[in-house]
């Protein structure tokens, strides 16, 4: 059985493992003060074109989200998120556990628009009987594979500034967003248009690791304390530094995201050719084809994937995720199997 | 400069890196459900001789401590620790940040005795104006290199049971404790005599990783939620599973701890031969020789270590830490340099 | 201007003030151990027909809610509430601030039905990536004046038991609910059908005060610690005890609630006579008449009340609240003014 | 039995009850926006000679402490307190429950000096592995009856400013401190020399109530949210406003504190006359005579008080607390009984 359920089924890109071996016995300072981490941060500052950024490496997405939000919000402040947002839907109350409400907004495409945020601000005016909305959390790519274009980010950014809201982008799949065919956004744009964001490594070639970027170092000058307090400061921080060094010193990060997207696109094209539709526009490495149930049953004999949402008595949307590690031969095989099942079904 | 400051200056034992490479492209379920983690847990259950134990792998010691304590204590309950305890002295208020007081007890040797705990219980009786002591936190080896023997653990365990206190052992350096020359304690003893403990990997050959062991699975039946909520559940849990598998499938863990201790012992013997004393008895991989300041100045030209505590105008206790990765040739060189400096000083 | 905005515009029922004066210089133990508190608890146990209940007096509703919820839920557990629920809409994130998510359910009438809760349970199954629903919070009367009948409570209670959910009733306006014309529920029923509830004093004749009732004292055997920790334990607990003693020793509590409801009914009848409708059925002391805007403008020259919701270009629902202290003469005057404005409008 | 155990055994000063009756049926806005609260705040601003102060009324001391500390500290910051400080010794972990460590300092007289704080700062330098000390908490009068003079406060204040520490004074017994014979401190001094303090009402004539004073309103501009979130905002805030109005409009507050101190002094003088010593200098309404155990046994037949600390086989220090309500006749009787018991003992 080949697994299309997620983008963390394999280990790390071989270059990373190779570098771990090469550097293994070099003695280094602990807690992120190692030379690899320092170098990786420098390279990232160049990639995002922002010398004023403060960068920290941590282990995972939920950890990142609770660190950033607990460091930036006062105790009576809240964060606004799409109802599909990872902090609301898949993090076991991590944000509430550090004391903050997540104010959710219905979103059919996983994205937030200024209008929806404006409605929240109107709803939350009865001071002091309500929390104070102070941050907007968005994901790019979103949890359902959609992406923000530059105009949308620009508009969101301006709206947040006008309304004294911090803009935080969850970039667990930022590589996939930036490398999407229809993307007009660069890492430097992200750095300019958000207050804080993170660059996800775990889902794009690393064993583990996310790079938190505060675009202005005055935003969280004592974030190091928070890292340690929440159990996020690794003794062997080199493990994170080495990975981001490998991922960014030669643009490996973008190549890997591109591969994942390309594999997704290949499958999406085949879905199209078979005459099937999608739940959401397939632009990154997460695609949601709507297939006849009979076809799904057939595919499930060889492939693992989630049935995402029943559409009607005959059809269901499934979720397929490709990654940096997805084998193109197996993608080809999947396409063949899909076409065959589709042919039989008709 | 060779670094004797800590036991996390290098990467991982080569076997671990080798296994990461071998298994790298095997697709595995995420979040700790991979086959390596499952296998590692089985092996650990055998090593601790306790089929009823529930085992979880996480990234680091502070994370472990806050997870265990927040999962087991009610909101008005507190944990008792030596004032040298890591949770009190080096974790940036991680335990208070999850809502609990650490009640500290003065301890000259880093260890806790029933008598001291009894005094705390007497002090904390003015219910409901005081917190309720509910857990005892000990470290083995302690933060200053001392260890508990079986009689001490037995007595502590009995005292805790009588007084409705949970006994939690921080085993960041458990390997070093168990492999100390004068130790009469086994992993199985630890499992029998504590309620919960952890086996530290980060400081004994792993890139990162601690194994939390609840000795009775009914103690924290919903700990998986807590792991996720606190950001401790790695998507690629295989990284932790593989490491513990390598460390424990053939007793590598104990060999590595033994090497660290042996290197420490070698230096300690040389210190003895030079006629110097120790701040605390040198039994594990942390030793605290009291050296003339002139000797220290000399050693500092080639080696990194902490000056721990000034003893008098002429002498200071230093801390030297050896590890699984400590190079024996350098230890020999250090001994030569020590003897030379000592000779000149006299 | 006469204020119909809320039921806490005046002080306390005169009997209470009288009793405060009579007992003023009697020395009493502090922290709720005074004889008035003990006596009031005994009387309440009789009224709810439950000797096994554990009762605590505190200052206000938000305080009550955060105390009960933080005492009963584990850190990964959540509470389910109608989106109109006070804990979600008017308590500044008090529940999130003690670490718990409020899972909201859309409700048009302010009430929760098993079906809606069942949907939440279905949504929150992806353990451990989601919180665990563990408590159901309902208000009676609800925040929009509706009440639960016995059959509804019975059904909810059974559903909660089957699904391992605690049922918590916010009784800030419990007196008004119980004394509603169409109510078939008694205090004893509430005690039997919920796990924990509170009897609101602040909005029914007291200066301040809510009585928290755990219907089974084994539910929160160490609640006294929590009271103190959250700053809810008054040194002069007598102030709360005396009030509940006065309110319950001769059924004053019910008489006061009845007066409030009767005043509401009088106005509601007049609204009916004028041919106007209501946003929700007027059964307690909160009524929501839908009036022509012109009529509203007229009434606003003499009375304070909230415009609750615009219905259409011509009409708006307003909220009128009556209380134990509402002056019947002014109610009569209001009715006259309403009829006059209504007449002119037609 | 007459109770000298504490200063909250009686109700409120009669003027307060009288005013509650007079104003009882005046309709007022809720949540502290009533005219009595507004007027009381104005009067307090005059008394402390600080128009820039922001004042809030709340119910009790533990509540005050947790509100102030949680509003002012960031999540990685800690508060320094004497080990006798109320926040450490008698508040059930209220401060840790909102996430902050209390760093304690041994103090024989209940007071903090700059030198002790300086030692804490030296100890807490290993950023980011330790919390950041950010606030100094002192009590005046202290928990053992001692007081700060102006020079001490001046020195503390200067030290805190130099070291970026906020100075917070717990004034649960501030009246007693200011009215002590040897006091050279005024309310205006307190306002100038601290960042935030509170004026205790509960122990000096009120039913309940403490006035929190931020001496600079920019210090906590959104404190209203915190009040509500922690359950501290009373619907009938008038109850607190009326009390502070009565206590301060004509200096009743100071007269009541003076009475309490005078009663304490009377007993202290008698203790002196009998030739007995004190555990701490008797300057406020808490005195700690060291009496022969036989004398204590005798007194215990008629009076309630705490045995504070055994001094030797023959003698024990007891604690006697007088208050605004202490009856002078009974004080005289107590003195007679003391002298008689003392005479017999000799």
Structural class of chain A: alpha/beta
As a percent range, the share of strand residues of chain A is 15-25%
Order of helices and strands of chain A: EHHEHEHHEHEHEHHEEHHHEEEHEEEH
CATH class of the largest domain in chain A: Alpha Beta
Span between termini of chain A? 25 Å
**Would you identify the regions of chain A where 5 or more consecutive residues have pLDDT less than 50?**
none
Count of beta strands of chain A: 14
CATH topology name of the largest domain in chain A:
Aspartate Aminotransferase, domain 2
Silhouette of chain A: globular
Number of helices of chain A: 14
Name the CATH homologous superfamily of the largest domain in chain A. Answer: Type I PLP-dependent aspartate aminotransferase-like (Major domain)
Helix content of chain A: 40-55%
What is the spatial order of strands in the main beta sheet of chain A? 2-8-7-6-5-3-4
Overall radius of gyration of chain A: 21 Å
Whole-number mean pLDDT of chain A: 97
Largest interchain contact: A-B, 51 and 51 residues
* Quaternary structure: homotetramer
For the record, the CATH architecture of the largest domain in chain A stands as 3-Layer(aba) Sandwich
Keywords (chains A, B, C, D): Pyridoxal phosphate
Cofactor (chains A, B, C, D): pyridoxal 5'-phosphate
Organism (chains A, B, C, D): Paenimyroides baculatum
Pfam family, one (chains A, B, C, D): Beta_elim_lyase
């Amino acid at each position: 059985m080949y697994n299309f359920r997620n983008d963390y089924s394999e280990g790390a890109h071989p270059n990373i493992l190779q570098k771990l071996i090469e550097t293994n016995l070099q003695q280094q300072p602990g807690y992120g003060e190692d030379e690899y981490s320092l170098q990786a941060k420098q390279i990232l500052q160049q990639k995002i074109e922002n010398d004023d950024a403060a960068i920290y490496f941590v282990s995972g997405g939920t950890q990142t989200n609770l660190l950033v939000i607990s460091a930036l919000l006062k105790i009576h402040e809240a964060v606004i998120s799409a109802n599909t947002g990872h902090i609301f839907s898949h993090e076991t109350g991590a944000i509430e556990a550090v004391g903050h409400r997540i104010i959710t907004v219905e979103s059919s495409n996983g994205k937030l628009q200024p209008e929806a945020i404006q409605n929240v601000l109107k709803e939350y005016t009865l001071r002091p009987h309500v929390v104070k909305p102070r941050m907007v959390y968005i994901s790019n790519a979103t949890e359902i594979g959609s992406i923000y274009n530059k105009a949308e980010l620009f508009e969101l950014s301006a709206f947040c500034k006008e309304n004294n809201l911090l803009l935080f982008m969850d970039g667990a799949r930022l590589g996939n967003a930036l490398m999407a065919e229809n993307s007009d956004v660069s890492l430097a744009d992200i750095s300019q248009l958000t207050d804080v964001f993170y660059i996800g490594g775990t889902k794009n070639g690393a064993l583990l690791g996310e790079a938190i970027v505060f675009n202005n170092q005055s935003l969280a000058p004592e974030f190091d304390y928070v890292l340690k307090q929440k159990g996020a400061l690794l003794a062997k921080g080199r493990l994170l530094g080495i990975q981001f060094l490998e991922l960014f010193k030669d643009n490996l990060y973008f190549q890997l995201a591109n591969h994942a997207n390309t594999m997704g696109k290949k499958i999406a094209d085949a879905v199209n050719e078979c005459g099937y539709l999608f739940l959401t526009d397939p632009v990154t490495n997460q695609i949601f084809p709507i297939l006849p149930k009979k076809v799904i049953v057939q595919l499930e004999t060889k492939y693992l994937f989630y049935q995402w949402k029943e559409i009607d008595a005959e059809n269901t949307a499934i979720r397929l995720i490709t990654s940096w590690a997805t084998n193109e031969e197996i993608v080809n095989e999947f396409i063949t199997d899909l076409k065959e099942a589709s042919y039989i079904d008709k």
